[in-house]
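Archive transcription. Copying these from loose printouts into the bound notebook so they stop getting lost. Printout 1 of 2:
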Amino acid sequence: LFVALSLLVASLIGLAHAGRIVHREGVDQAIIRDAILWDVREGQAYAKGHIPGAVNVGKKICAVLRTPGTWDYLPMEQINQYLANWGIDPTQEIVVYGDKASVCTYFVLVTLEFVGAGNVKAYHGGIDDWVSAGRPLSSEPALRAPMRLPLGVRPKPEVLVSTEEVIRSLKRDDVQILDVRTQKEYLGEDIRALRGGHIPGAINIPYELNWVDPQALMKMESGMVSAKEGLTLKPLEQLKRLYTELDPWKEIFVYCHTSPRACMAATVLKDLGFRRVRVYDSSWFGYGNRFDTPVERESFFDVFALTRKLKEMEQRLKALEMQMGSAKEKK
């Protein structure tokens, strides 16, 4: 019996990236099947060059589909209306891509699954991988005809989890919570809401650990490297080892600060065979800005320190303006 269970568990977490995450060859095959290609970069980048036939809505899509200030999803009716206006048919196969390892790519994938789409893929390598392979680009916009509502799919609320469900889950032993923020965010040292810390019992596996070089983004921002090879996903066996702390039999709630990083980690987990994975879309922004939610490693945003820094900056600006004024008078 033990051997049989072990083999079953291995099969649960041993699936290759034949699921939601595709490589360049998978995009080629999708194009042959006449799938919708959705370039989720902003319009200016899309206009400079995109995969031929890919559509683009010209906006920062991660912001468009959510309410400014709270980062909660727009009402389902409004999201469906946007998709209809853009001609994005959730009943068809859809391949989403952006820049390499873009979390927005994964956010859109999860959003489409939440709406009810059943065949959505994420091209992790994105436009960078396409260009590096010498593939052709187009600067001509691809347009799709607007659609009429309803879209022919049923929403899948089980894709996401709410703050209230997360709080109730703290009393359950069949749920595990995965925090994919940085270690400093997890420990309450990097505070991005009214409170810092983490959800009680949450396991911290930063989403950058999915890359072959977890420091790749930092190196790029600091100018140490310019190439994006470090953003490639780790080989399958390394990804499986990364998540060995998680129990494949339990439900998994994944969160970050506002959910895009969580969407990437959740997609990786699903492709590894974890079946019961849900994204906490409000994430820490929704959880840490409330004062009725239990927190471990609790810390608080120092408003007074921020005020002091703002005043110091204001004084420096005034001094600089006075110096510039004096210099002009001397001339």
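Printout 2 of 2:
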Amino acid sequence: MAMILDGKETAAALKEELALRLAKLREKHYEPKLAIILAGSSKPSAMYASFMQKVAKGYGIDAEIFRASDDVTEEELGSLVTDLSEDQEITGILMMMPLPKGISAEKMIALMNPDKDVDGLTETNAGRLTAGKAGLFACTPRAVMAILDHYKIPIDGKKAVIIGRSNVIGKPVSLMLLSKNATVTICHSHTKDIASITREADILVAAVGHANYVTADMVKEGATVIDVGINRVDGKTVGDVDYDAVAAKAGAITPVPGGVGSVTTTMVIENIIAAGEKLAK
């Protein structure tokens, strides 16, 4: 049976480190503040905004939700993003997606100060990641890396396969694994015979958005399997991996829930602190 890579345990260990970094910031008389942009009437977005506000306050970080209605114009929302980007009291900006109809997410992201972009959405931060420079990077891929680091899963020289090529998960996590000297392959909807590729993986990251997509016959004996998927099936939350079958074959595996998602919010907090450390210099 595979070792369970517990996201809650990883997050708890990170919380101690983050508390120390926050204390050092406050020694410099700097108080970080998070601005959460909530545009429109999406209930999941509203729930996540409130949740992130609560998480931030749990660290003693001030977090304010800036609301805009469904009929907000692109000019109005763009003005808010610009104002928050220029506001010296704001350390980080978290913009809830999706935005209301008629609003270009790409345009709004482009207006954001990359040094306050705590979700790692801007092209500047994507470029920094590609170039191997410091920046604020997407939180879910960073959660994957945090779990691997916490459990001391070897990466250097290992074969890593990512299923999914999205800009928010697949591509950034591939670059993060590459930076740790993994040999990386990305699979996607046009990849032929995916199973023959995934069976070669020492580290398999599933980010395809399809419940139970990864089956036991797709996994190498003893592999580390990281499940990024969140799907609802018959009222239950499941991942992209057929958990019970794969756990019997893998060497280590993240559960859903309780895996990557449990660490993602911690990575948002880490990005706020990192942004504060840069601004406080």
